[in-house]
Amino acid sequence: MKQKDRGRNANNVKPIIIIALLILTALLVSTSVLAIGITPSKRIVQFKPGEKLTYGIDVVNNGQEELDVTVYARGELKDQVKLSTQKLSMGADDKSKHVNVEFTMPDKIDVAGPHEVDIVAVGSTPAPEGVSSAIKADLAVISKLLVEVPYPDKYAEARIHVLDTETGRPVQVNIPVFNKGSVPLSEVYAKIEVYDKDGEKIDSFQTDKRAIAAGENTKFVAPASKEYFTGNYRAVAHVHYDDQQIEVSTGFTVGDLAIDITNLVVDEFSLGDVARFDILLHNTWSQEMKNVYAEMEVVGEDNTVYTDFKTVAIDIPARGVGALEGYWHTQGIEPGMYTASITLHYANRVSQKEFELEVYANRIVTRTMRTGKAIEAPEELNLEKNMFLILVILVLIAVVTVLVFRLKKKGAPKQAKAASLPAAPVETKPKENPKVSQEQIDALQKQLDALKSQASAGTEDKPKEEPKEADEHEPKN
Question: Which of 75, 139, 62 has the alpha carbon at shortest distance from 101?
């Protein structure tokens, strides 16, 4: 009988366990991340006018899955780069694939210091057969080529930025100066001028004077001489070092911070290939914005979502510009009108903007539709993490339910058996004698003594009843 009950319980438990395993499998599949790498991550070369450099990079398939990879160059020297291929198709068994890079140095680079060229590889899983379009998560990896242009003996570089400033608070200007040359600088200082939006000078002040050793740097911090009203301003610093001078400038805002989505650009597009979107941003605030990223969704006129992706986060310098990159596989996409919705995340704030996409065979035309106001986002919500936690909780509930069900089934026969047994006899304890105080004992003793006295005297008045009455009150030993 027990074996039948156990078999029945096992049959009831199996479907629940199977469901739990299916949920876990879906969870692991849904949270998988496309794994792609590139090597080397960085290469540094010295600038030699007109020299041709040839080297190789390897795109690595860390996830051991089928990948379509697009390779291209970007940066100020991208036109000097020639790649052996721009398209790679990797099978699940392919650990890596090689790409040859040919870089021809220009005849002249005016600015000394490092100049970067990025070799970018964008990987994605191929679209399933029979599916016109699929939502995919692309991942881009970068191999950097740094071209070092040598500095002259006496050479300094300077930067300028204005700290985050709210209305009614004093403005503070920071000017770091770097001695990139091989000789020390004996006297370095900066004169600062502040202009309003109309170009009128409203303030001027100067830093202290310092010496900077070769290869060293220093930072000048200069507070403004007065407070500024809400608005846009420009600070210009004339940095003097010995007999030379350089000028640096930056704009800053007194008021609220904001990042504007200025445009959405698509270049070199062909329908059916990968369309690269550049989301152009302008940081209007007077402080660097870190970890700026966007979420973009492309929707058709029938409200079908054709792609939905999250960009890699970037840092945008104060009063500077930046670009976020996104990719859309247009295989199976028909020419027509689409809507791109962009949600920008920065500094615990969220702003939104929509663009109208007009897709042709060889180009995508973008037009601004409307802009959403920036709102506060005190806590950044991670939908993937929340879904992960919800699924884990559901699996745990299912497992606990199975265990409780099995425990109840095992305990039920024992309870039924116990109910069929005869009741055990109840043991009763004898009642304890009441406690007698010492005063009662003394009183009884006196009565006994009195009776003894009467008996010896030969008195017969009630001699037998009183001892009986005394026996009733005498405690038992």
Answer: 75
